[in-house]
Design goal:
Strand order of the largest sheet: 1-2
Largest sheet: 2 strands, antiparallel
Order of helices and strands: EEHHHHHHH
Number of helices: 7
Helix content: 55-70%
Distance between the termini: 62 Å
């Protein structure tokens, strides 16, 4: 039978102009002391956890690619609006964020380029549909052919060329918007290998 033990009252220290109230430490029983030799390296544990999950990375990236393709299909069907643009941007942004961790850095670079188009193009309806389609196709190909395409360096070259084409396009369409031109000319945050 569980004990119905009332919590200890808080300790109150009164001073001339204030009081200090110290609640009881009810978590003391949950902590155990360990000796130094029981401690292990948290970085090694994190790396081991990633290694244990690494078999799932390709599946997760494929799922992200499916989400990206679905968001693009909605745009092809309905056109750009706040919702469809947001869905495509979030899907590309999630790939950009996850790709390096999951071992697909070139897919992350292509996704970053797509995010830049969605963020800096003044009129998304005027963006050449092939430019967006090529980014999505590249991301999917990099994830699908990961074991062969990455080794050949094709994925990095593809991502770099997409970025160059996207930057050229954004420079032209933002020529009357100097604040955007400055942002567009900023270097990529995706590290080079």
């Amino acid at each position: 039978m569980a004990k119905n033990k009332a919590p200890a009252p808080p300790k109150v220290q009164a001073f001339a102009d204030h009081q200090v109230i110290t609640p009881p430490n009810t978590l003391k029983h949950a902590i155990r002391r360990v000796i130094d030799r029981e401690l292990d390296d948290p970085v090694a544990r994190a790396e081991q956890a990633l290694a244990n999950l690494s078999g799932e990375f390709k599946t997760w990236m494929r799922s992200e690619c499916d989400r990206l393709a679905a968001a693009h299909a909605a745009i092809l069907k309905k056109g750009f609006d706040t919702h469809t643009r947001g869905e495509l941007f979030r899907a590309a942004h999630d790939i950009k964020g996850d790709a390096s961790t999951f071992g697909f850095p070139a897919a992350g670079a292509a996704a970053e380029s797509l995010c830049r188009i969605l963020e800096h193009a003044p009129d998304l309806d005027a963006v050449p549909p092939d430019l967006i389609q090529h980014h999505i196709d590249a991301i999917q190909a990099i994830v699908r052919e990961h074991n062969t395409i990455e080794k050949a360096g094709v994925a990095n070259e593809l991502s770099a060329r997409l970025r160059a084409v996207a930057d050229d396009y954004l420079t032209v369409v933002n020529r009357d918007r100097p604040d955007h031109l400055e942002m567009i000319s900023a270097p990529s945050i995706v590290p080079k290998e």
